[in-house]
Write a structure and sequence with these properties.
By secondary structure, the protein is α+β, with helices and mostly antiparallel strands. It contains 17 helices and 12 strands. Helices cover about 50% and strands about 15% of the residues. A hairpin with an 8-residue loop joins strand 5 and strand 6. The N terminus is likely disordered.
């Protein structure tokens, strides 16, 4: 028997020790200020050692009562940290061999294998648990493993992502109020965005899932949640909120440098767009005037030319308008035309970014999604954009003030370059992702 702050803990209740350890981890910031985040991992190590000492002090009685349960509790304790721990694998393996019906032991063993990078063994563990009982932990972890599985073809990758999405949805069917499951759901949508189609609707679904996750006290302090939310916001071109979320991710894990790196990249990217718009791509005036003079709606509207003009039957048509007439949001039934004066350096693959100038000498940024790697436009190309979606950027972040306009193109088919539609080989839905797949915490 062990004394713990005046409370007697015996072998019959030793499982409470490890549950308290996990509550300490998941609810750390409910009782500790954000300023202590830098000490979180060291404090968790201390709490882990205290918990292990308590568990081992009950070893003799616990082994007599239930050897499988004792090894499970000890293995679960060692599995509390983000990194792989060989002791967790050792004790959890002993547990499931002694009692193959311990669902939680299978799930934690699968999580241990996942941290080790052995995704096949991890999947087998989660399936073993799921075959015994439908449970949210197995389902959401299978969502991650499915997305990690390699594929020989694009179709294989898409199937894996769709399988991951299905598992995440099933996890929420088991418990619609679980914040961690909503986090996994958001990540499944982000995988869909990067692997299948860079759709604005998919980003909205991911954001909705992340916001639901943030409402749960056990998941709202997860730095990966705020990092991935920042990435989703960045691709929604909600830049101010994205920068704030990168800040929050770093606050919850000050030793994790990636959020700060991505934040710095985004600030650099926004400053580049703003600077190039103000300077009209830094093109010399004589050359710029030649570019502008050569813009011809008759030549460069391409297939959109056939849709322009009035129709007797009153059908909607595309009206060629200058950039200055665009309003925030979707500009239906309008088409704009400009010449490319520069591309904007972006350390991320998505979106491809450039600036155009129209006949009125107005300069604006353009971001394109769903383009194949290495494809895009070059300086001097004339670009027509149908139904342009205008984004207005106007905010201050730290010492940086941003104020510019850009057009977002999600579907390259709404473009014509030098009077011709983009060929199909320039369009792609396969891009590298920057969101964190570190969602394997059970």
């Amino acid at each position: 028997m062990l004394k713990d702050d005046g409370v007697n803990v015996d072998a019959e209740h030793f499982e409470d020790i490890v549950n308290e350890l996990y509550s300490y981890r998941d609810l750390y910031f409910e009782s500790n200020p954000i300023e202590t985040a830098v000490n979180f991992h060291s404090n968790l190590k201390t709490k882990l050692q205290e918990s292990v000492d308590k568990i081992k002090s009950l070893e003799e009685d616990a082994l007599k009562k239930d050897r499988a349960l004792y090894f499970y509790v000890l293995g679960k304790a060692y599995n509390v940290e983000t990194d792989y721990n060989s002791k967790a694998e050792e004790y959890l393996s002993k547990s499931v061999k002694l009692n193959p019906n311990l669902i939680d032991a299978w799930n934690h063993l699968g999580d241990s294998y996942f941290k080790k990078g052995d995704y096949l063994e991890a999947k087998n563990c989660f399936l073993n648990a799921l075959n015994k009982e439908k449970n949210k932990v197995s389902l959401r972890n299978l969502s991650v493993v499915s997305r990690k599985e390699s594929g020989k073809t694009k179709e294989d990758l898409i199937n894996n992502v769709n399988a991951g999405l299905k598992y995440a949805q099933e996890a929420l069917e088991v418990d619609p109020n679980d914040g961690t499951s909503w986090f996994y759901m958001g990540n499944a949508f982000m995988s869909l965005f990067f692997t299948v189609k860079q759709s604005g609707k998919t980003l909205i679904q991911a954001m909705d899932a992340y916001n639901r996750s943030e409402n749960d006290p056990s998941s709202k302090s997860n730095p990966d949640l705020h990092y991935n939310k920042a990435v989703a916001l960045k691709f929604q071109e909600e830049y101010e909120s994205a920068l704030q979320c990168f800040d929050k991710a770093h606050s919850f894990d000050p030793k994790w440098e990636t959020p700060k790196l991505l934040q710095e990249r985004l600030i650099k990217y926004l400053n580049s767009i703003q600077d190039l718009i103000c300077q009209k791509g830094r093109v010399k005036n004589k050359k710029l005037q030649t570019f502008i003079k050569n813009i011809s709606p008759e030549k460069h509207l391409g297939h959109f030319q056939k849709l322009s003009g009035d129709k007797a039957d009153g059908e909607a048509t595309l009206k060629h308008v200058p950039l200055s007439e665009l309003r925030p949001g979707l500009n239906e039934n309008k088409v704009v035309l400009g010449v490319v004066v520069c591309s904007v350096l972006n350390e991320e693959l998505v979106p491809f970014t450039f600036c155009i100038v129209d006949k009125e000498n107005t300069c604006m940024g353009v971001t394109i999604y769903n383009l194949a790697n290495g494809q895009g436009v070059i300086i001097g190309d004339t670009v027509a954009i149908a139904m342009p979606f205008l984004k207005e950027v106007d905010f201050t972040f730290g010492s940086n003030k941003f104020n510019f306009k850009s057009i977002r193109i999600s579907n390259p088919l709404l473009m014509a370059v030098n009077g011709k539609p983009l060929p199909s080989n320039k369009m792609s839905s396969m891009q590298m992702s920057t969101f964190s797949e570190a969602d394997n915490k059970v």
